[in-house]
Amino acid sequence: MRASRDYLQFAHSILPAARDGDAAAQFYLSLTLGYCESLYEWYFIERSREGRVRHRTLDEAQQISAVRPFFSADDIRVIQARCQRLRSLEEAPFGAASGWFDASLAQRFPLAQAQAASNLALQGLQRGDPQKVRIAREESRRLAFEALGTPDTAVLLGVAGVGAALAGEDTAEASRRSLSWILAASLREADSADLREWMRMTCRADTQCQPYETPADVVLRRAGNDRDEVERRALELSEKLDAGTLEPDDIG
Question: Which end of the chain is more exposed for a tag (fewer CB within 10 A), N or C?
Fold first, then answer.
């Protein structure tokens, strides 16, 4: 998916497997469709009051990136290349991104579980019915813990967001939890594609990033005075994952 430059072609290539019940194909099809539903919509779709749709040109979309600077002009070009054909179809054969995500989650695909856990943890941050908040937080922790049965880098990065959200309004603890999980991922697989992508996105906002830094360097620099604590927690998490002794409370 990350290597593809045409998401219509990519979606067609994994659709048969998704229809046959392959949970990974279902998950990545949901990501593909969701990517084009959100990012292409944000930059390239203009809707009139009457409901008419116009696709902006690349130049117009890149001008928008000047006031929405999270994505660069080159990123906007990639979004167009990936999504233009898919979003230009009058009737696509793929269905909704949410439907494929739910299908993957129902099969307990770890990346779907980690994402669902993150969504629930964020719901738990909202003020509302205390009972509903408690249930959302408990289900988030359960899903994240089950996802960690397959402790690959992408899952650990997903659980980083869960742990941070479960810290509630304690922003310092949220940062320590998030950075500890990211560092644990780096300790286990320092040169993974998922960590490179995390670093690429992180360094858009972190102007102190340097070309020679590794993901671990970035984490420990961002930890500041909590560097020793974050490193200690990361080592402990990695050891527990290896030993199979991780507990749900270790998530947050």
Answer: N
